[in-house]
C-alpha cells in the first residue's frame, strides 16, 4: 500500500490512504519532475523583466533618438522659456532650444558611457580578481594591495580630479576614467569567490587530470561566477551613469556634447527653478530615475536568481496568491490564532 502525500491547507481534510499496490517509491508531482532552465527562471522574475523592458526602451531611444528628434538640440528660436505644448513637448530653454530634442539626443551619450565603463571596469575586475584568487601567494597579496588602494580612495573625487586635468573630456574619455577608478570593488568580490572555488572537488579533479590553468579558469571557475559578474556589471553601469551626470552637472567636460547631465547643468546655471521653468529639469530627472530603477530591478532579479532562498520565497508567495491564500509573515499571528483555537 502506498500513501499519497498531499499538502494540507487550512480548511482541507487529510487524504485517505489509497489501495493501490506497493510500488516501492513515492511518485513526484507531474509539474516538478523536470527542473526549469536557469534562463527561464530569470525571465520569469517580474522585477528582472520590468527592468529589462525599461532598459530596452532607453536603448531604442539611444539608437534612434538623433533621427527622430524634431529639432536640432542646439538650435535657437524665438520661443523662449515656453511651457510644454504640442509644438515643444517638453518646453524650451532660455534660448528657445527644444528640451525634448535635447533629451532624445542626450540619451545616446548616457547609455554609451555607462555601458563602455561597465564593460571595461568589469573586464579589469574579472582579470585581477580571478587571477588573485586562483594564483594565491605573493601575486594574490600584490593584487589585493592594489585593489585596497583603489577602494580606500574616494572614487567620485578621484574621477573629478583626473577628468579636470585632461585637456579634452569626451564621453569615451569619461568612460575610461570611470573604468580605471571603479574596478576594485568587483575584483575584491570575485577574489573572495574564487578563493572558495579553487579548492572544490571539480576544480581539484580538473587539476589532477592535467588541465591547463587557463582552461580551469575559463571552463570551471568563470561559469560559476557568471551571476556575480553580471550583478557587478549592472552596479558599475549605474555608478558610471551617475558619475557622468555628476561631471556634466558641475561643468566638467564638453558642455556642447548633450546628455542628461548637460541639460541639468544648463537649467541650474540659468536659474530654471527660480524662474518656474520646471519643464527644463524635470524630464531629465525622471529619465535618470527610470534608468536607475531599471538597473536596480535587474540587480534584484539577479539576486533572486542566485540566492535559492530568495527565489523559493518569491515563488511560494506568488503561488499562494494565485490560490487565494494570503501569505503570513512572522510568527506572532500564528501563535495568536493557536491560542484562540485552544480557547
UniProtKB/TrEMBL annotation:
Residues 107-299 form the ABC transmembrane type-1 domain. Keywords: Cell membrane, Membrane, Transmembrane, Transmembrane helix, Transport. Pfam families: BPD_transp_1 (PF00528), OppC_N (PF12911). It comes from the Bacteria. The chain crosses the membrane at residues 48-69, 110-136, 143-163, 169-190, 225-252, 278-302. It is a multi-pass membrane protein. It is found in: Cell membrane. Its main location: membrane. InterPro entries: BP-dependent_transpt_permease (IPR050366), MetI-like (IPR000515), MetI-like_sf (IPR035906), OppC_N (IPR025966). PANTHER family: D,D-DIPEPTIDE TRANSPORT SYSTEM PERMEASE PROTEIN DDPC-RELATED (PTHR43386:SF1), OLIGOPEPTIDE TRANSPORT SYSTEM PERMEASE PROTEIN APPC (PTHR43386). Belongs to the binding-protein-dependent transport system permease family. This is ABC transporter permease. The lineage of its organism: Bacteria, Bacillati, Actinomycetota, Actinomycetes, Micrococcales.
Amino acid at each position: 500500500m502506498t500513501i499519497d502525500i498531499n499538502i494540507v491547507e487550512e480548511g482541507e481534510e487529510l487524504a485517505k490512504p489509497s489501495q493501490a499496490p506497493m510500488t516501492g517509491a513515492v511518485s513526484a508531482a507531474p509539474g516538478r519532475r523536470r527542473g526549469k532552465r536557469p534562463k527561464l527562471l530569470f525571465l520569469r522574475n517580474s522585477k528582472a523583466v520590468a527592468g529589462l523592458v525599461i532598459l530596452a526602451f532607453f536603448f531604442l531611444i539611444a539608437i534612434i533618438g538623433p533621427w527622430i528628434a524634431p529639432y536640432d538640440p542646439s538650435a535657437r528660436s524665438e520661443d523662449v522659456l515656453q511651457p510644454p505644448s504640442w509644438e515643444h513637448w517638453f518646453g524650451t530653454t532660455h534660448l528657445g532650444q527644444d528640451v525634448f530634442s535635447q533629451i532624445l539626443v542626450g540619451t545616446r551619450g548616457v547609455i554609451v558611457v555607462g555601458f563602455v565603463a561597465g564593460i571595461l571596469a568589469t573586464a579589469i575586475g574579472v582579470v585581477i580578481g580571478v587571477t588573485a584568487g586562483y594564483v594565491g601567494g605573493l601575486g594574490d597579496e600584490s593584487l589585493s594591495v592594489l585593489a585596497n588602494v583603489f577602494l580606500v580612495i574616494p572614487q567620485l573625487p578621484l574621477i573629478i580630479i583626473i577628468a579636470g586635468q585632461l585637456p579634452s573630456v569626451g564621453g569615451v574619455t569619461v568612460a575610461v576614467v570611470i573604468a580605471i577608478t571603479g574596478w576594485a570593488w568587483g575584483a575584491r568580490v570575485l577574489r573572495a569567490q574564487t578563493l572558495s572555488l579553487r579548492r572544490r572537488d571539480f576544480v581539484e579533479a580538473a587539476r589532477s587530470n592535467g588541465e591547463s590553468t587557463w582552461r580551469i579558469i575559463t571552463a570551471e571557475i568563470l561559469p560559476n561566477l557568471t551571476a556575480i559578474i553580471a550583478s557587478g556589471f549592472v552596479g558599475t553601469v549605474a555608478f558610471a551613469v551617475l558619475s557622468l551626470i555628476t561631471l556634466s552637472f558641475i561643468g566638467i567636460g564638453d558642455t556642447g556634447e548633450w546628455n542628461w547631465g548637460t541639460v541639468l547643468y544648463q537649467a541650474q546655471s540659468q536659474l530654471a527653478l527660480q524662474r518656474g521653468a520646471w519643464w527644463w529639469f524635470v524630464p531629465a530627472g525622471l529619465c535618470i530615475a527610470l534608468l536607475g530603477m531599471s538597473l536596480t530591478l535587474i540587480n534584484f532579479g539577479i539576486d533572486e536568481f542566485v540566492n535559492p532562498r530568495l527565489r523559493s520565497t518569491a515563488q511560494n508567495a506568488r503561488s499562494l496568491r494565485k490560490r487565494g491564500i494570503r501569505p503570513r509573515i512572522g510568527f506572532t499571528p500564528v501563535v495568536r490564532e493557536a491560542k484562540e483555537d485552544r480557547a
